[in-house]
Amino acid sequence: MERALTAPAEKQKPLLVAVVGPTGSGKTALSVSLAQHFNGEIVNCDSVAMYREFEIGTAKPTSTERARVLHHLLDFVDPTGYITAGDYARLAKRSEDLRERLRQHAQTKTPAYLHRLLSRLDPHAIERIHPNDTPKLIRAIEVCLQSRQKMTDIWEQGRDPLTGFRILRLGLNPERQALYEHINARAKRMFDCGLVEETQRLLAKYGSAAAPLSSLGYKQAVQLLRGEIDLEQAISAAQQAHRNYAKRQITWFGREPDVIWLTGFGGDPAIQNVGMTQVQKELSKN
Hints:
Layout: E1 3-7, E2 15-20, H1 27-37, E3 41-44, H2 63-68, E4 71-72, H3 85-90, H4 96-108, H5 111-121, H6 134-147, H7 151-157, E5 166-172, H8 176-192, H9 195-206, H10 218-225, H11 231-254, E6 259-262, H12 269-283
Parallel strand pairs: 2-5, 3-4, 5-6
Antiparallel strand pairs: 1-2, 1-3
Helix pairs in contact: 1-12, 4-6, 5-6, 8-11, 9-10, 10-11
């Protein structure tokens, strides 16, 4: 889930519309149009957009979009801060000392080492975490050490149910090739609009302490600034990384139950009208 909005409903629990879909599918455009039409508010669920000072590479809502609709949970985490899905969803208490030790340890070890360590603590968890996904590896190791539970045991317990709302799930599912072309164009536009300069400023100010610098786009800009790749390679690598991410998201959201899929981009007025119809239908239920 990357975008959510709430809209009022009389005599019933308020309606929460979860707008899901792969990166580049237009979730922001759809959520803004729906929230404005139904006098709703938007709750950001994108992990990198929660960080302050990271703008170009996060594709945050523009100042115009924010002026049209009230947004929540944007720009509320310090660049050197750290937040997990559990922190966000359940406001769970964190063990900063343990996490900091793991993060420092990770800087001296390869992801392969962390992957082997997790395989000993929780052999089944490694089947669901990519060997190079350092943040998730650290989180899983942390859970094992802190709670003395396996990450897979916690997954099997399920997520805490969201109560107090009726939930409507709208999913954006553009044609795959069109999505990839859009992703390629957007990644290049980020570089054209100053992603490297923004990354240079953030790198100089925070160094490796700013976790989002390892996220898509920023990672390739850092490699460029360090002379590891040239501009053309950085753009190509960012495009490929975003396409791969979109592919994983499509697989992930495809498992979500009760999603109403809209075949197109969220910025398409026709798709927005379909979304409005679905929301109105839900609001009209007695």
